Amino acid sequence: MIKVFFTPLLVLSFYFGFSQKTKKVSVEKSVFGIQTGLLGIWAHNELKLSSQIALRSEIGFGGLNTSNIRPVLALEPRWYYNLQKRADKDKRVDGNSGNYISLRARYHFHSTEDAEKSDLYHLLTVATWGIRRNIGKHFNYEAGIGTGFGFEKGNSRDVVTVPYVAFGIGYRF
Question: What does pTM read for this prediction?
């Protein structure tokens, strides 16, 4: 009698246990926040383009050193490649918390007088690998590294290779 009772129960438990689907994880529809780093402060928005790709737009003040902090606009498509892996390990993915690869384009606004006096990067395009992690409900940090091309404006337009390192702490609304 016990075998008759436990055999169907065992079969049903395997059926229901293996028939569960894992939840498909995606970047958030829209993430808005502010962020500060060593040389600047920015407001940003990430807009969902697909389940793993978000388009980050940014406006703020920043520079390569303290003497040339100017207004900055940036546009950056990000591919968050490990969201599903993080979710499977029960790690946080809210607020697009994960690793990403991106192509960052940033434009620095300089006055013509400043640009003529020194070699300042007006346009910077960088391939980046980075991470974003959440601290609590609203705070996060990001770190990224990459290399790209900067367009200098001096006496003539020159294209130079530029190393890129970023670290920022932010607040997500």
Answer: 0.78
